[in-house]
Structure prediction request, 337 residues.
Amino acid sequence: MDEIFLKPFQSLMFLIRDWSFPYEYDYGLKGGSEFLDKRLQVKDSQHEELQTVRQHIHSCFTSISCFLLPHPGLKVATSPSFQGQLCDVAPEFKKELHSLIPTLMNPDKLAVKEINGNKVTCRGLLEYFKSYIKIYQGEDLPHPKSMLLATAEANNLAAVASSKDQYYKNMEKVCGGDLPYVAPDSLEEKHKFFLRESLHHFASIKKMGGQDFCNRYQAQLESELNELWESFSKHNESKNVFSAFRTPAVLFVLVCLLYVLSGLLLLIGLGSVSFVCDCMLGLAMIAMLTWAFIRYSGQYRSVGSTIDQAAGVLLEQATGMLNKTRGQVVTQEKKSR
Prediction:
């Protein structure tokens, strides 16, 4: 917890039920405070981790208290017919509850939950629950150091979730849902800007665990943001009308070229080569009809992706050849001048 300069947590109350020694420490907050002071004393006979926890616990919580509750009564503990009747609860237990509940639920004392100076949202609270559940899944109770690490992990994960949510909402406003198609260059520029904002938001949140510990979660955030960017980019590309009709357009042009080429070859007497062109023409038409069926039915999407990729390769090759030819023509014109 190297980076903490303020107390990271607000309040901690130890609630001890079935307290059997009221002659040593009286019930309630006062007796609990005296008992807690004794228990938090550091002794050489204690385990090193327990000593560390005792030394630093006051620096972690703004206020620490303890409440001693008596036993609720033998009828509550032993009677099989007990179903919550207050008449069976010991009077001294009810008396102390009358003191405890207003202390916990007083509106003037309720505050927005904060951890390490940051207000905890529902999303962030979920990350804390997940981290604590992990370390309590074993049969043995976790060490105090494990609890601190779990809190630091949850604190960083909450920062990751908050930063990721900020990026997602910003990108949704640009290209999400039913919004129109955005030019790729403009969208990438927005992505880079929102990415920097999200990383800055993550860095500005006070976190626990030290710089090296936090760097791991920053790398995780960058990876998740890149995945979101790929998703938004594909979603935006799907809105491009020309992109949607690229494959049938390429196949249609290919069919027309093969049809004309087949006729010319047949005209000059190259019947065998013309037959090959006719076969390729048939394959192109089958591919175009198959693509249309897949788009209509939504089935065999892997076949549709293969046809899209093949059409993309043909378009790239044709574009490359045209650019190369155009470059050669321009070069020859310059030489002739």
